[in-house]
Amino acid sequence: MSRPRILPWQDRRGAFSLLRAAVFVGVFLPGLWLVWRAFAGTLGPRVWIEINHQSGLWAVRLLLLTLAVTPLRHVWQWPELVFVRRPLGVAVFAYVVIHLVAYAGDMAWDVGKVASEIVARVYLAIGFIALIMLIPLAITSTDGMMRRMGGLEWRRLHVLIYPIAALATVHFFLQSKLGVTEPIAIAALAVWLGLWRLLAAWLGAPRVGSLAATALLGAVVVIGTAFAEAGYYFWKVHAPLARVLPTNWALNAGIRPAWIVAAVLVAVLAVAVIRRLMPAREPKRRRQTASAEKPPVSSQRQGNAA
After folding, report:
1. Torsion from C-alpha of 92, 93, 95, 101, nearest 10 degrees
2. 230-277 pLDDT, tens per residue?
3. Total-model pTM
4. How many CA atoms lie within 13 A of 2 on its CB side?
5. pLDDT tens-digit map of 130-188
6. Are 76 and 92 in contact (CB under 8 A)?
7. In three state form, how does the secondary structure of 74-139 look?
């Protein structure tokens, strides 16, 4: 007997899931925003380049969210988050494909020129390798493929997400020409997630997912981000560290990468505290069992009357 098909906004039991529905709608919003801008004529003189940049940016952001699911499950004590990992991963692949198609559109659909540019430019080659590595993950993203492969083999294949994230981060950083604030912040968040995984493998996820450990690791990454930005400008334009580091305390210096990472840390800790303060809910299966065992009121009255 075939299993009933689960829709993207339903949980495993087929009931409506607000979490899944929010993620399902959310991954479409950046693409729909690009479509609206295209019809409104606000994409600028080089439409394909703007679509290329925006789709690549959202692909990297969603990739980080995909990697963050497991750490956030433990930090937020929210096991249901595991069910949004695959939708996020599929969305990453979709935006990467749009990213490549838009680049080909800017090249007037000259496949030969696109291929030669990918070979000639290191950052394009790195991004293309990441796309190739994403293909088997996208193909095996369904429940059916997981059952055919078996859980162990499926997990081994999907470990590729970590080198893909490293390649995507490097590609995003190298292709950034106007500013490095977000690329440095993205790289810092990727390092944070990588460090969390390494520490979880060493010390155990529950211990690393505690509020104290999260705050400590996040603070280390925030400080490291500030020094990484200063080091970048020292390497690029020989700006002294003593001049760049104080900009993290100057409100008129613009948004700094360390601010972005610090804001993410505050948000993660705030949600973690709120969830810990929420009253524990009894599992639905247990509630259903208890209600099934309890006789209806009418039966109780009949029994008393007898």
Report:
1. 160
2. 998 888 888 888 888 888 888 887 889 999 999 999 999 999 999 999
3. 0.85
4. 4
5. 999 999 999 988 878 888 888 788 888 888 999 999 999 999 998 876 578 999 999 99
6. no
7. HHCCCHHHHHHHHHHHHHHHHHHHHHHHHHHHHCCCCHHHHHHHHHHCHHHHHHHHHHHHHHHHHH
Total number of residues shown for the chain: 306
Inter-CA distances, 112 with 104, 115, 119, 123, Å: 10, 5, 11, 18
Specify the DSSP class assigned to residue 41.
Answer: T
Q: Sign (positive/negative) of CA torsion 267, 270, 274, 276?
A: positive
Which of these, 106, 107, 109, 117, lies nearest to 45 by C-alpha position?
106
pLDDT at 305 over 50: no
- Please name the amino acid found at residue 31: G
Residue type, 26: G
Q: 219 is written with which tokens?
A: 């603070």
CA atoms of 46 and 54, how far apart (whole Å): 13
Of the chain, the percentage scoring pLDDT greater than 90 comes to 60
For helices 161-175 and 122-139, the axis angle rounded to 10 degrees is 150
- Residue 49 token pair: 């380049």
In one letter, which amino acid is 149?
M
Expressed in angstroms, the distance from the first to the final Cα of the chain is: 46
Q: How far apart are CA 304 and CA 300, in angstroms?
A: 6
SS3 16: strand
pLDDT exceeding 70 applies to what percent of the chain?
A: 89
CA distance 202 to 208: 9
Alpha carbons within 13 angstroms on the beta-carbon side of residue 305 total: 6
Are the C-beta atoms of residues 64 and 186 closer than 8 Å to each other? yes
